[in-house]
Structure formats: structure tokens, C-alpha cells
Amino acid sequence: QRKSFQMHRLHFGYQYNMTEKTYFKFVADAANTAPGGKELTPLVEIAFLHYHINPMVDLNVGLAPTTTFNTQENWWGLRHVYKSLIDEHVYNNPAGSDLGANLHITPAKILEIDLSIFNGEGPQLPQDGNGTLFTGGNVILKPVEGLVLRGYFDIYPAGADTTLLGQQSGDRMTTNFFVGYKKADKFSIGAEYNMQKNAKNVNGQDRAGVSFYATYIVSDKVRFFGRMDNTTSVKLNPGDENSWNINGDRRDYVGGVQFTPIPAFNVVLNYQHQDFVVESIEDRPKLYLNLQYTFN
């Protein structure tokens, strides 16, 4: 049993509106990357130029947000408690941002399309020596009020190398589907399915994960929430005893209540439990009291 205070993350951002159609946005991030919660590592997370080309098209260029899991994360709405499944299990290196460009198209009120091209290394690393680029896109449908359907796909080529970590390399491909429904000021529910082929660009390292989450809104100050994730991976070879990511295959349970005593300040009492497939890894039950403060 262990008790501790931890500072997980600090963000500081600035947005400068250059014209009616153009703005520059900058966000610095200090993240807790060391065990024990004793160290915050600063980095530039976002630094991009946004151009509103016309009522249907917007362009982001620079160190810009990716769209890998932004819809799911916004729907879950509790990143300060637990990351989205793809982010938590590091499906992609360019998790929340990367160097490149994203085109957002809204051809109709019920339809949104994103097309992206990025370096593929995320905000902290330079472009790899092979010059391979990460490309992806998604389609979002909003057929009726409160209902959102989303499909996403990206690919990150293996580059010139034919072997990696002693295994045949392969193009990493990530696919996810999301469906969510919410009734304003009442509740929200969401479900997602994620599949990745050739994780870390190693041929045959396939994995998948599902996530279910719900929020019940009691008032503008109190809401209850719950979530369950299940992640699995496959065996690399027919004779293998375990799957390639056996130490990461697990079920995650999260539940709790969020209080908002004053605007922009959240107090979250929550229970988290990680149930691993491997019996030698002990389950990890945790009780947290999270505090979040945001300001503009």
C-alpha cells in the first residue's frame, strides 16, 4: 500500500488572432514522466497556424493536434482522470500532436472529414532517417441530435529497414470506430473499438482494444461516471505460449464522481483497477482524488 501526492500535468497556452481567418496557437506542456511523481518534464506540445479557408474548410500547419483519438477523448471528457484507450496504451507515437498538417472539411452539417499528414514521431523527436510519413483520416457522421458515429484509419510505413527488433518489419496500421450518444444535461454514453496491425512496425504484432464509458449528470455541479477497457494482443508465432504483449493485456475499470464547486475547478473522487491477464502481475487497485483547474 502506498500513499502520495502527485502533479501529473501542467499546460500553459496562448492564442493570437492574426486576422479574422487566421490565428496562431501555442501550448507548453509539463508532464510527469518519472516514477513516483517527483519530476515534470517541460516540452512544447502545440505550435501551429490555423487558417479558415472558407466556411467548409480549415487548415492547421505546424506542430498541430492529431485526430487519432480526439473525438473519443472529448466525449469521455475526463482525461484528467484517465487517458483514452489509444493514448493510455501508446498505439501511436504522434499521440496528441505532431509536425505536419491537418485539413478539416465540413461539407454538410451532419458530416465532417479530416485528412492528415505528419512526421510520425510526435512532438519530442525529429523526423526518422528514412523520411517515412504518418498519414490518416477520419469521417464523422451526426445523423440526429446527440448521436455521433466515427471511423478512423492511419498508416505509418516501416521505412527502408526489413527487420526490426529481430522481427520482420511491417507497416503499422491503426483503425478505430466510435459511437456515442448524449442527451444534454442528462447523460452520455460512448463505445469504441480499436485495432492495430504491426504495432511498433513489427510484422505480426497485432492488438485490439474496446472501451465503454458513461456519464450521468446530476446537476451542473455533480456527475457520476464509469468506464471499462479491455485490451488484447495476438501470438507472434503458432507455437508461442503467450501473446506478444502479454504484460500489457488487461482490463481497466474506472468509476467515480466529479464535483464542480466553482466554474473551471473540478474535484474528482475515483477508483481505478487494472486486472492483468498474466497472473504473476498483481492487480492494481487505486483510489484517487484528482483536482483540475482550467482558465482562459
Outline of this structure?
The chain has helices at residues 70-76, 85-88, and strands at 9-17, 22-32, 40-54, 57-65, 97-108, 111-118, 134-141, 147-156, 163-164, 167-168, 172-183, 187-197, 207-217, 222-233, 250-262, 265-276, 284-293. It has 296 residues and is mainly beta. The longest helix is centred in the N-terminal third of the chain and has 7 residues, at 70-76.
Please describe what this structure looks like.
The protein is mainly beta and 296 residues long. It has two helices and 17 strands. It has helices at 70-76, 85-88, and strands spanning 9-17, 22-32, 40-54, 57-65, 97-108, 111-118, 134-141, 147-156, 163-164, 167-168, 172-183, 187-197, 207-217, 222-233, 250-262, 265-276, 284-293. A 15-stranded antiparallel sheet has the order 1-2-3-4-5-6-7-8-11-12-13-14-15-16-17, with helices on one face. Strand 11 (172-183) and strand 12 (187-197) form a beta hairpin.
**Estimated helix fraction:** under 10%
Instruction: List segments where confidence is low: pLDDT < 50 over at least 5 consecutive residues.
Output: none
Mind describing the biggest β-sheet? 15 strands, antiparallel
Mean pLDDT across residues: 88
| Derived structural class | mainly beta
Distance between the termini: 38 Å
H/E order of the elements? EEEEHHEEEEEEEEEEEEE
- By DSSP, the count of extended strands is 17
Q: What percentage of amino acids are in beta strands?
A: over 45%
Shape: globular
Radius of gyration equals 20 Å
Number of helix segments? 2
Which sequence of strands runs across the widest sheet?
A: 1-2-3-4-5-6-7-8-11-12-13-14-15-16-17
